[in-house]
What we know:
The chain is an alpha+beta fold. It has two domains: 8-85, Elongation Factor Tu (Ef-tu), domain 3 (Beta Barrel), CATH 2.40.30.20; 104-194, Beta Barrel (Elongation Factor Tu (Ef-tu), domain 3). It is 15% helix and 38% strand. The protein has helices at 64-69, 126-129, 161-166, 184-194, 207-212, and strands at 8-17, 22-27, 40-43, 46-53, 57-62, 80-85, 104-114, 117-123, 137-140, 143-150, 154-159, 177-182. The strands form two sheets. The chain has a six-stranded antiparallel β-barrel. Strands 7-8-11-10-9-12 form a six-stranded antiparallel barrel.
Amino acid sequence: MFTGIVEEIGKINSIKRGEKSVSLTIDAKKILEDVKLGDSISTNGVCLTVTHFTNSNFTVDVMAETVRKSNLGLLSPGMDVNLERAVKISDRLGGHIVSGHIDGIGNIREVEKEDNAVWITVEAEKGILKYIIYKGSIAIDGISLTVAYVDDQVFKVSIIPHTKNSTTLFNKSIGDTVNLECDLIGKYIEKLINYKEEEPIKSKINMSFLEENGFL
């Protein structure tokens, strides 16, 4: 589990490509302070497992399904990525609850500066937009952000200078893809509301059955 507060910007050191999967080696510093094999690290918002590490980088495997559903397959050596270690129970929850299991990708459609902030417009499919609400939370490439506008085609976030300086979001250009994870709560509520309990199986054992079979 993560918070969407990016701890460090890492850099892709090397990539090994399988038939459908990818193995990434990422240069980092802070993330490696207490890393262990099997640790979960959010990489551009995707929860990945550390399979190897040194004092200057770590390696993660990206399975085919993750390549299909995210933009990790588009990475190349030298590119920057947002990194966050799994949250500790004792930590402050500065962002919102982020699982690292993204819902899909969006496309940056517009970037507009307003005083000290920048508005970013992201286009997404309706299956994702239905979970995005005004003033709700959204994780974009693993960054916890507040939705400032949403309609049936796009949503917008307003970025403060700190986010600009401590994440990779401003390395993106119009048309680039971003990983999106909607707030968990809305998805669970939808599931519960739409859940239809099957009719309970009616037992064939009754007083007549017991009598006919010599139990009474």
